[in-house]
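User: My collaborator sent over this chain with a note saying "see what the structure looks like." That's all I know about it. Can you take a look?
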Amino acid sequence: MSETVEATDAAQVTTDASPRRSLKELISRSEIDTRLLGMVAALAVIWIGFHAMSDGKFITSRNLWNLSVQSTSIAIMATGMVLIIVTRNIDLSVGSLLGFLGYTMALVQTDGLISVFGFNLTIDSLANGPWYTWLVALAVGLVLGAIIGGLQGFIVAYVGVPAFIVTLGGYLAWRGMIFRTGGKQGQTLAPLDDTFRYLGGAPDRSLGDTKSWIIAALACVGIVVSMALARQRRRRHDLAMRSLGAEVAFAVVGCGIVILGVWLIAIKYASPVSGDPVGIAYPVLILIGITLLMSYLAKRRRFGRYVYAYGGNPEAAELGGINTRKTITYTYVVMGMLCALSAAIQTARLNSATTNLGVQNELDVIAAAVIGGTSFSGGIGTIPGAVLGAVVMQSLRSGMSLLNIDSPSQDIVVGIVLVTAVAIDALLRQRRRSTVFAALAVGVALAAMVIQTGRP
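Assistant: Without extra context I'll predict from the sequence alone. Here is the result:
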């Protein structure tokens, strides 16, 4: 009799566990990034919550279009911050560097002058504002960003000064350099080149409906082709493959998201000037390109593999013959160039350069990377996750602005979200999965309380 009862209990346990096991097996076979999936779910909750609290003002084409443009600068820098944090380093200077590079690029456009470290070079051909002014300004910013990033990376990698100290010094120095640039004493530089302003995004300076649909079609083709090539590579190396039905389902869902996003955000939003569909903003297009490029660099190129190998185990990477010092230096070079690109976007959006450009951006960039799943312990982090983390950060700020939450309360909420994300990462690394939901619940409750008390 007892054996019959035990057999019945065992069968019941097996029956209860089978749905959970089958779900885990399904997710494992589909190769879905659970961290990224969790971020998407969190973003959906944030959007729906703010949409309800703002009486339907959040999930609108106008607000989502502005949200996409406002997220680009932080998201672009966050893709570089991923590589730096993966190597167990940090860069606290990105906000100040952005301000310095933006001011330098604006000086090239307004005065035709390059002024760096006491070296002044006047470009006479820029006096009359030729068509290539924006190209010269952008090139100067990218080259200078690469040099400064390389200098900081060299000190970290070859001199052995901790990254925290080096970039903290950069945080102070590059902000001060704004007041020493061109003898302007920090005065506002404006207006900027008309073509350069397209980099900032504006309703009257976007792709429009036709070009946006062409981009959407190309994106759908790219999704299908990339999935087909990935399947072909797996077959060539005799690796496990998803079923053809799953591949088709993923392709359909991916293309559906692209088409829905372009229609809802870019096409449905009518220009307040002309009344025509605004289309995709140029900064968003730049962000998409940077995300693809950085993902390719991180996953497909030797440099990216070296970065993750060093972050996972520095000693093993050294013994494996990886030039770790050069690898670390290059991560800062990439970060400097991304700061220059973000500086171009922010100055073009404002049509001016000011001394407070990029203030506190370093905190938002680090928070975006960490919220996106990048671990301070090294070796873990994804480019798409960082971009999604930047969108989450900007969604919080945008939603709280719609609710007229005061600025100090906004900073408190961002701080709570950052600490919660790091706590969840630490708990996952310690395999204390049972307490992850408790930490998440506490963080959400505290953030909700601050938002509620901060409302007028």
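A starting point for your reply to your collaborator: The two ends are 68 Å apart (CA to CA).
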